[in-house]
Amino acid sequence: MKHQSIAEALREAIAEEMERDSDVFCIGEDIGVPGGFGGAFTVTLELEKRFPDRILDTPISELGFIGAAVGAAMMGMRPIADVQYSDFLFLAMDQIANNAAKLRYMSGGTIRIPLVIRAPVGATGRGSQHAQNMERFFIGIPGLKIVAPSNAYDAKGLLKAAVRDDDPVMIFEHKLLYGSKGARAESGTTNASSDIPDEDYVVPLGTASVRREGSDVTVLAWLLMLYESLAAAALVESDISAEVIDVRSLAPFDWKTIGDSIARTGRVVIVEEGPITGSVSAELAAGIMERFPDKLVAPVMRVASADVPAPFSPVLENMYRPDRQRIADALRAIVA
Amino acid sequence: MDIELTDSIEIASSYSRPFLLELYERMVLCRQFEDRVKLLFLEGTMPGTIHQSQGQEASAVGVCAALGQDDYITSTHRPHAHALAKGLTAEEMMLELFGRSTGCCKGKGGSMHIGNMDKGMVPAIAIVGGGIPLATGMALSFKLRQRAQVVACFFGEGASNEGAFHEGVNLASIWSLPVIFVCENNLYGASTAISKTTRVPRVSQRAQSYGIRGETIDGNNVLKVYEAVQRAAEECRSGQGPVLLELLTYRRVGHSRRDPAHYQDKGEQAFWFARDPIEMFRKSILQRGDLTEADLQTIDARVTQTIEDAIAVAREAPFPTADDLTQDVFSMELKS
Fold first, then answer.
1. Which pLDDT tens digits describe chain A residue by residue (336 residues)?
2. Which chain A residues have a beta carbon less than 8 Å from that of B166?
3. How far is it, in rounded angstroms, from Cα B102 to Cα B317?
4. Alpha-carbon distances of A125 from A122, A145, A176, rounded to whole Å
5. I want to staple A143 with a disulfide (CB 3.0 to 4.6 A). Which of A101, A116, A246, B327 is the partner?
């Protein structure tokens, strides 16, 4: 047993999978330059020393190297492609949405794309173009599996499950949860470190996890918003018993875990970092109302960002990102 | 850079009679298949849309004849000749075009995504340029696994103005990957002439900016194409890839099924129609002396029969069912 940050746990997961399977390789920008960063958030730091031929530094060329990763995966390799900021995924959108997600179906089920794409999300003082929560743009593309780990244990287990899965899996990670150190450390971080077992394990894709049990209301959140939701649940605990679920799998949703909780509480608050319109929470809300209409005693509520680009000024950024106070207000409102 | 476009084909005595007949039969198969498919659309029994390749047979057949069974091709929205040249049967293709469950993509691909991985053809990528980074990634897998395979990546001159071309060719060049980038320059991107979109007179000149070899070839001379691809494949297999080949050719038909191609200049049409790749080859092989008009007529008739048989099978084949709709999205289904 050891205690690790998300960055350390991901690094160890990648190394172990590369050790286990020679078809696994990493591809991305600034991921293996000696004396460099190990990717934007140190996840692949020094892995090039152990795997000199399988940590592939690319030009600044997201369309090109994500496309190349899809092509290599199609031939049976298991690439882990890494974009520095998830906002850059727009540059590679054609390769992800039109090739990675569709080639299996278009081929009548003959092609497998065992591809992993890792992408950091979240507003972190960098203005509008290095801040988006991009997961919303991918959950509606059939053929993709999407996860978002909020702690180091899950990060390691989900990454391993993703590498071993035969379909394209996108892993969205939060910049404020990595626990990156040194020159790449972030300010204002949240501690998401975990005890990590010594033995090999996976966290199955497609599963949510109940992080706090409660009986009055179900809170659905992931990544940084999970921590704000847990803090909000603690703020109101003298009056309200809130159950907090780490949604963790954004495609597909774990409707069993979510539905079981709603059957007990009858109320749902969904919390999301990112503009409220066209969001993951919109899809969750619609899915809940379709699947569990008889279980709800109150309309679903959402706490999300305003419909604006992520702003720069820390004052504005804090208004943009939902916080424990806003979530607590929603919890009080929904049980009132 | 400029090349002479002759209207006769010189045939070295080293070419065997069976090889020449094989090239001839493949080209006739491509032509008759397309002509017959056009009629099926006109009579209204074939669904969808089509982008046909009459006039470009020497490019498809010459390229694929120089590849091995283990080698791959990627194709475009105009893929029928590429598929037939790589060894897909008229029957599996006709089934697919008719949307039947026994087609090469189970009726889920259709004309623009036709392919068969067992025969070395990736389902065609119908986003212009979208197959280029994919081919680079396939070649990356060959290099990482130390295999002697190559991939021939077909695209049109229009794709050479896509960002995907730049990124895919650049990546392949920095890693010396075994890709033959095959630009079929038929002078028009849909209806727009290359002179309006591209300032350099030859697409192959762009090779210089990637530090790789580029060559322009008469794409209507099947033997010149075959020889050029043999050279390129050899270079790729010995680590001297990638290579950019520009095959000058011409579409004898519109861009898609209802396009009468009024934008093609009459003089230009006359020049290219007189240089029909099949007619030129037919004349030249007849001059050899060991082949007669009757030999070729036998082939023509055999091809006609093959296609008619394929149509008969396809018309009777089953359509996909409602169950098929949701199959083949994932290799490993997750419960949701």
1. 999 999 999 999 999 999 999 999 999 999 999 988 899 999 999 999 999 999 999 999 999 999 999 999 999 999 999 999 999 999 999 999 999 999 999 999 999 999 999 999 999 999 999 999 999 999 999 999 999 999 999 999 999 999 999 999 999 999 999 998 887 888 889 999 999 999 999 999 999 999 999 999 999 999 999 999 999 999 999 999 999 999 999 999 999 999 999 999 999 999 999 999 999 999 999 999 999 999 999 999 999 999 999 999 999 999 999 999 999 999 999 999
2. 64
3. 7
4. 9, 29, 11
5. A101
First vs last C-alpha separation in chain B: 58
Which distant-in-sequence residues (6+ apart) come within 8 Å of B237 by Cβ?
B148, B150, B178
| Cα atoms in the 13 Å half-sphere on the side-chain side of B120 | 20
Interface test with B, best of A26, A99, A158, A203 (most B CBs within 10 A): A99
The confidence score (pLDDT) of residue B6 equals 87
Q: In the block, which residue shows the tokens 């849309």?
A: B49
Domain boundaries, chain B: 17-317
Per-residue model confidence as pLDDT tens digits over B36-95 = 999 999 999 999 999 999 999 999 999 999 999 999 999 999 999 999 999 999 999 999
With an 8 Å Cβ cutoff, is A72 touching chain B?
yes
User: What residues does CATH 3.40.50.970 cover in chain A?
Assistant: 2-196
Distance separating alpha carbons of residues A21 and B82, to the nearest angstrom: 35
CA atoms within 13 A on the CB side of B30: 29
State how far the Cα of B283 lies from the Cα of A123, in Å rounded to an integer: 69
Residue with tokens 């046909």: B52
| B194 contact partners, CB below 8 Å, separation of at least 6 | B157, B158, B185, B187, B188
Task: For tokens 């980038």, name the residue.
Answer: B181
pLDDT at B123 over 60: yes
Residue of B nearest to A53 (CA): B144
As a whole number of angstroms, the distance between CA A25 and CA B152 comes to: 24
Q: How many residues does chain A have?
A: 336
Cα Rg of chain B, angstroms = 20
pLDDT digits (tens, 9 = 90+) for A182-239: 878 888 899 999 999 999 999 999 999 999 999 999 999 999 999 999 999 999 999 9
Judged by CB atoms closer than 8 Å, whether chains meet at B140 and A71 is answered as yes
Asked if B232 and B224 count as a contact pair (C-beta separation under 8 A), the reply is no
Name residues 165-194 of chain A within 8 A of B (Cβ). Answer: 165-167
- How far, in Å, CA of A228 to CA of A222, rounded? 10
CB contact under 8 A, A94 and B136: no
Architecture per CATH, domain A209-335, reads as: 3-Layer(aba) Sandwich (3.40)
Provide the terminal-to-terminal Cα distance of chain A, rounded to the nearest Å. Answer: 44
Using an 8 Å Cβ cutoff, are B184 and B194 in contact? no
Provide the CATH number for the domain formed by A2-196 in this structure.
Answer: 3.40.50.970
Provide the annotated active-site residues of A: 62, 130
Q: In this structure, which topology does domain B17-317 adopt according to CATH?
A: Rossmann fold (3.40.50)
Contact A109 B327 (CB under 8 A): yes
| Cβ-based neighbours of A168, under 8 Å, separated by 6 or more | A70, A73, A96, A100, A101, A113, A114, A115, A116, A117, A143, A144, A145
| Chain A residue closest in CA terms to B320 | A108
